[in-house]
Amino acid sequence: MNTVELLRADRVLTVVRAPEISDARDLCAALVAGGIHVVELTYTTPDLPRHLERAASTAAETGAVVGAGTVQTADQATQAINAGAQFLVTPGQGPEAAAVAEAARAAGIPVVLGAFTPSEVMTALALGSAAVKIFPAHHLGPKYFKDLNGPFPGVPLIPSGGVNATNAHDFLAAGALAVSAGTDVVSPADVAAANWSSITAKAKTFSAAL
């Protein structure tokens, strides 16, 4: 099952933004235990390639599909791919978005490009984005996804930013492929303190809300 198919089944991925990760393997295991299998570790965490390597090398053990997020340059894309990232996610479409997409294509992994407007959705699709991340979703709300389904029927859209257990189902009902769970599931404090039981419990609560 590829990443997009897994997202279609699970309806959720989690985005980890933390100043430090005590153990990426244990983090992924905690999330999978809570029902979330797709994990996005981001370049906002220092020394990301090391954490990606740890998560990727133990993916068969944990059952997680691990990718790199906040990828903004071709160099970051290459680093992440070499570390074992199984997908790439960008926050938007900067000057190197096409190069990031090409690096993912060459490596045979999906890229999810960030977008905010219909024009950016079109650009993301033209660059080969397997799905399109709409960010920041909380400013737009679920109705925006229903509106986007008009000109873009069937395009896999993923809301990110401000999605929580209270509003996640509304985004899915409006046509989103899956939602991004952020600090509602993986708070920086829990990650830094290795509070895996709390992360598993929050993941279960979020998954149940879908």
Please sum up the structure shown.
The chain is an alpha/beta fold. The protein has eleven helices and eight strands.
Question: How large a portion of the residues is in β-strands, by DSSP E?
Answer: 15-25%
Alpha plus pi helix count? 11
- Indicate the low-confidence ranges by residue numbers: none
* Strand segment count: 8
Strand numbers in spatial order across the main sheet: 3-2-1-8
GO molecular function: lyase activity
Protein name: 2-dehydro-3-deoxyphosphogluconate aldolase/(4S)-4-hydroxy-2-oxoglutarate aldolase
Subunit structure: Homotrimer.
InterPro entries: Aldlse_KDPG_KHG, Aldolase_TIM
What does this structure look like?
It is a single chain. By secondary structure, the chain is of the alpha/beta class. The chain has a single domain, classed as Aldolase class I (TIM Barrel, Alpha-Beta Barrel), CATH 3.20.20.70. It has eleven helices and eight strands. Helix 2 packs across helix 3 (48-57) and helix 5 packs parallel to helix 6. The longest helix is centred in the C-terminal third of the chain and has 14 residues, at 196-209. It is globular.
Topology of helices and strands:
Elements: H1 3-10, E1 12-16, H2 24-33, E2 38-42, H3 48-57, H4 59-62, E3 65-69, H5 74-82, E4 88-89, H6 97-107, E5 111-115, H7 118-126, E6 131-134, H8 142-148, E7 157-159, H9 168-173, E8 179-181, H10 188-192, H11 196-209
Helix pairs in contact: 2-3, 2-11, 5-6
Keywords:
TIM Barrel, 11 helices, 210 residues, alpha/beta, 8 strands, 4-stranded parallel sheet, single chain
